[in-house]
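2024-03-11 09:14:02 INFO receiving multi-entity request
2024-03-11 09:14:02 INFO entity count = four
2024-03-11 09:14:03 INFO echoing inputs for audit
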Amino acid sequence: VKSIKSAALRNFAYRLVARSSLTENEVGGLLDLDGVLKDVPARTDIMRQGDNVDYCSLVVDGLVAGFRQRKSGARQIIQLSIPGDMTDLSLLMSPSSGWGMSALTRTTVLRIAHADLRRLIMIHPGIVEAFWRDCVVDASLLAEWVVNVGRRDATARVAHLLCEMALRYEQARQGSRRSFTLPATQPDLADATGLTSVHLNRTLAVLRDRAIVSKQAGQVTVHDWGELVATADFNPAYMMLDGPAVPFEL
Amino acid sequence: VKSIKSAALRNFAYRLVARSSLTENEVGGLLDLDGVLKDVPARTDIMRQGDNVDYCSLVVDGLVAGFRQRKSGARQIIQLSIPGDMTDLSLLMSPSSGWGMSALTRTTVLRIAHADLRRLIMIHPGIVEAFWRDCVVDASLLAEWVVNVGRRDATARVAHLLCEMALRYEQARQGSRRSFTLPATQPDLADATGLTSVHLNRTLAVLRDRAIVSKQAGQVTVHDWGELVATADFNPAYMMLDGPAVPFEL
DNA sequence: CGTTCTATTGAGGGAAGTCAACAGTGGTGG
DNA sequence: CCACCACTGTTGACTTCCCTCAATAGAACG
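2024-03-11 09:21:47 INFO inference complete, emitting structure
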């Protein structure tokens, strides 16, 4: 149990360090965090929109979707969180959750109290910056999702989502861009791309028939990365993967 | 000139204070900021995606759109900034601009150096929180835009955008939700909603014919706010207008 | 006073949605 | 251990919402 927690915290620290310069001391503070492990079955809500909670959820294993729902029931997935992601760091700055959270597959999360996180950022200014920057990165992904559903047709949309997830899993050292595990169902992917599950199915078939990418029971295999990038009109700049910015100082 | 600047800074402080508790001292620090006023003609780029700048832009007057563009040229507007908004506070956490900025109408912005803003947040921890929270609010708007283009039809989409802008102008004390000035052309609104300008025109016609809302040369008149909210499936919770959260402390 | 942008309208086409049926699959409980 | 059941994936036929192309009038701007 202890090793599971520390592995998860290491993944989280790794994600932060990819974009922010942290001192050894600060990384140590991150790794010293503790929380409560929660196992969540597939297809169950972790949090509802508007809920007030006093902890953040670090994904240890599985896949978590943030979503908003219309009165009609139509669901739009806003964000996908993979192991090593904190699903809702922005909760530190907001009294209640801006969107619902649902486990798409069997998932385990580590709940870390806001009080602990706040204590940490009071001590280490570099961590404030890293957390804030993490929220900015999430916003940049959101902006690209607006472009995705707003200005790409179904094929490009699905291809783009797969490009993004490929690089994220690769960056998190959980597979490569050529092959990774994405335990989301077709209805889930439809909700993430603003399509219906029927049309998403047809779109995946097109990408498979063109020998670009295929998905079998959660396993995504990219046969032609170049073609995938081309059909998605994918430019990874928005993911801010270019390494840490200059340290935060005057 | 001096009074223009300080009015703009007051508007900005007002926006922050609506969601964050700041001390008098901190507000004073904000109001003491200074920068360079820039006049920008209508339909001109302020910043291109990927540009590196060392200042943030506070909208003094006019309307600024943040957008991303596909290789094909298709443009998606990501964000609209009205007077009192800082267009790109997130630049403090990112080496280069994640999206382009364009003035939709004749606009004047106040450029404030990153160094000055950083100096301010080094001194006042409450301002760090306020800035960070401002980025979180922007992300929440982005999330709702994903829902908008992903899961609403054209009528609801346009209605929703108008609801959001109505409350924002009202909140910023620049008109009321029944009547406000939105100096965006129909092609602009189309780019913000993921529609074509032709279809946006027809959609506006529908809303006008139903006596819900009409737009004449930048002036938006809401004839039936309840109907507008209903057709938009609008729930303002995501705008975080419920006043300041508890002050930031342990 | 032309030029360019903006708003409007029509006709036709196409991408994605809807409804429906069925096969595969995995989990669960008897 | 097997049988059931719910979920997932797949396919077909039909519909519809939105796009495309095109033309024109009006407004803003130099």
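2024-03-11 09:21:48 INFO post-check: Chain A has a mean pLDDT of 94.
2024-03-11 09:21:48 INFO post-check: The first strand of chain A starts at residue 36 and ends at 40.
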